Amino acid sequence: MSRIISKIIPALIFWGAFVGVVLNVPYPDSFAQANFNQIIPFSVCFFLALLFTANIFLKNILQSFSLALGLFFLLVLKALDSLNLVTGTLTLTATGLLFSYFHKGKKNNLTKQSKIPRLTKLSKQK
Question: What is the DSSP letter of 111?
C-alpha cells in the first residue's frame, strides 16, 4: 500500500504544478512566439507529470521516460503544426525502439533448471 502511495504522490505533485503553471503563466500568441519563461515551466512540469504517471503503471522509470518523451515530442510537433504521417510514424518508431530497449528480460539461472544438477547435491552424494 505504501509503495503505491509513494508512486502516486510525485505524479500528483507534478500535475498540481502543471495546473499552477497553466493558470499563472501568461499565454503566448503561438508556440513559436513563446519566450523561455513561458516554455520551460510548462515543459518541465508536463514532462515530469507524464513520467511519474506512466511510472505508476509501468513500474520501470526508464520505460516511463521513453514513453513520456515520445508523447512530449508528439505534443511539440502538434504545437508547431509539423505533425504529419511521416513525423508521427518516425516519433512513434523511435519511442517504441527506446521503450523496448529498456525491457527487462527474464533472468535465466542455470542452476534452477532440472537438467543441470546443483553443486550441493553433488557434494552430498560423495
Answer: G
